[in-house]
Design a protein that fits this description.
- There is one protein chain.
- The protein is mainly alpha-helical.
- It has one domain.
- It has 21 helices and no strands.
- The N terminus and C terminus are likely disordered.
């Protein structure tokens, strides 16, 4: 027996260092892919990639495999490396470099939204309310250039972005001017702050810090923020900050942070009920609404135009993108109005929000309730589900990993194939590739949980901190 103890220690030590080496190795391979990014596929024959989007999906597929292997290694060895400061440093170090390598790339392949961000900031810097005129209007002709303006989508429509986003665009314009790479750099900085804030949140709730890997190395997060410069860089940071402040018993600042998050992209507002308990509801709702509306004061001169393109976006079936459940409902009931179905989905989301609003939540239940609400929002998204919308879900996976949702964060990128079809129509097989694994694994997990009373990584909303990944696999 005395001889076994040193051997056991030696075995554990070797395993401990092998996990560090394994993650570092995966990081080096991923770093090479991110560094060479869209130049890498040029090493392969041209016939393999019909379009730039096919080239992106090839890169994404490689990175997704590496990422899922890394998730397995981290979660499967939480007892050994869960609180390893060295491994956390490795994870954060590579996470920063992955993002930095993409900042200097032109984002036109996947999305041109960032050009609209820069345009709206330019409009404001010239003393014009961004809600009043679309980019194609004669009033804004003097602001056009040959770099930003040609890449703006929906030039004939006014902006869709809420007031918090507009203030952010102006601030970024002051800091970076009209520089694409400067703007992306600021968004990546916000995303790195999300990684650090998520680390703080994990510590507050007693979760292993190495779980931050799930967000920090997720290729969807890295490409949508580091490459495309999407607003989720700031939106998700403010949402995670709200949960951190709530965990530290700073309830009103938490609600205000969530209001600011919702004022950059509207959907974080759906998690407000998760932050409020008895005695906090009225005060919290008032603080949220007042904070949200105050951001609109600089834009009140727009009058009834202050919602911009939003109403058209919600009503028009032509704006529908990558909707799994809604697509199925429209096919099952062909006569069903698109906008009516949007209203039904919105009603279901509101009812779910009210349910959680009046439910008492303690400790990590707050996070889980927010997680459930975001999951429902993704499934019941009333208008479009662009890949970058899913980024808001990923911080929750660091606390409550779920196989179904982890896979979905990788398969949702296939929705970009819509833009490669002649008529711009989403292929049905792409929807099946995304949603069939999601709904199948969620359903199996729900049945498994009902029969075993085991809330594990295959269940609807993931394992909690007391359940080991290896045990759940069995």
């Amino acid at each position: 027996m005395d001889l076994e103890k040193p051997n056991n220690k030696r075995t554990k030590g070797l395993r401990y260092h092998s996990i560090h080496a394994g993650i570092a190795g995966l990081g080096l391979i991923s770093a090479a892919i991110y560094l060479f990014n869209f130049k890498l596929p040029k090493l392969f024959p041209d016939f393999l990639f019909k379009t730039d989007i096919h080239m992106f999906l090839f890169l994404f597929f490689l990175l997704a495999i590496i990422y899922l292997i890394g998730v397995y290694l981290v979660l499967n060895h939480l007892p050994q490396v869960g609180r390893s400061r060295g491994l956390v440093i490795i994870i954060v170090f590579f996470a920063i470099f992955f993002r930095a390598f993409l900042v200097a790339t032109d984002p036109v392949i996947l999305s041109t939204d960032m050009y609209r961000y820069i345009w709206d900031g330019r409009v404001q810097q010239n003393g014009i309310n961004p809600y009043l005129y679309p980019p194609s209007s004669e009033q804004l002709r003097p602001l056009r250039d040959d770099k930003i303006y040609p890449n703006i989508n929906r030039k004939e429509y006014p902006t869709i972005y809420p007031a918090g986003a507009q203030l952010l665009f102006r601030a970024f314009h002051i800091l970076a001017g009209g520089q694409i790479f400067g703007f992306k750099g600021l968004m990546v900085l916000a995303d790195v702050m999300t990684v650090l804030m998520l680390l703080a949140l994990l510590r507050v709730y007693g979760f292993e810090e190495t779980r931050v890997f799930i967000y920090a190395w997720n290729p969807l997060v890295i490409f949508e923020i580091g490459y495309s410069g999407h607003l989720e860089g700031v939106t998700v940071f403010l949402m995670v900050l709200a949960f951190y402040l709530n965990a530290k018993k700073r309830k009103t600042p938490a609600v205000i942070a969530l209001a600011f998050s919702s004022a950059t992209k509207l959907y974080p507002a759906f998690v407000l009920p998760a932050l409020l308990n008895r005695g906090e509801r009225i005060k919290g709702i008032v603080a949220f609404v007042v904070s949200f509306l105050l951001l609109y004061l600089p834009f009140v001169t727009a009058g009834n135009k202050i919602t911009g393109f939003l109403s058209t976006y919600l009503k028009s079936p032509y704006e529908s993108f990558n909707l799994g459940l809604k697509y199925l409902m429209m096919r099952l009931f062909p006569g069903l109005s698109y906008f009516l179905l949007s209203k039904i989905f919105m009603l279901v989301l509101i009812v779910a929000g009210v349910f959680f609003l009046f439910r008492e939540k303690q400790k990590e239940q707050v996070i889980r309730c927010g997680y459930i609400l975001v999951g429902l929002l993704i499934v019941l998204m009333p208008a479009s589900l662009h890949p970058w919308y899913v980024v808001i879900l990923i911080p929750f996976l660091a606390l409550f990993p779920s196989v179904a949702w982890l896979i979905f964060t990788c398969t949702v990128a296939w929705s970009y194939l819509k833009y490669t079809t002649p008529m711009g129509i989403m292929p049905v097989w792409v929807l099946l590739l995304e949603y069939l694994p999601l709904f199948t694994i969620l359903a199996i997990g729900y049945i498994y949980n009902q029969y075993t009373q085991h809330n594990g990584i295959y269940s609807l909303f993931g394992a909690n901190k007391t359940e080991k990944f290896a045990e759940v696999k069995k």
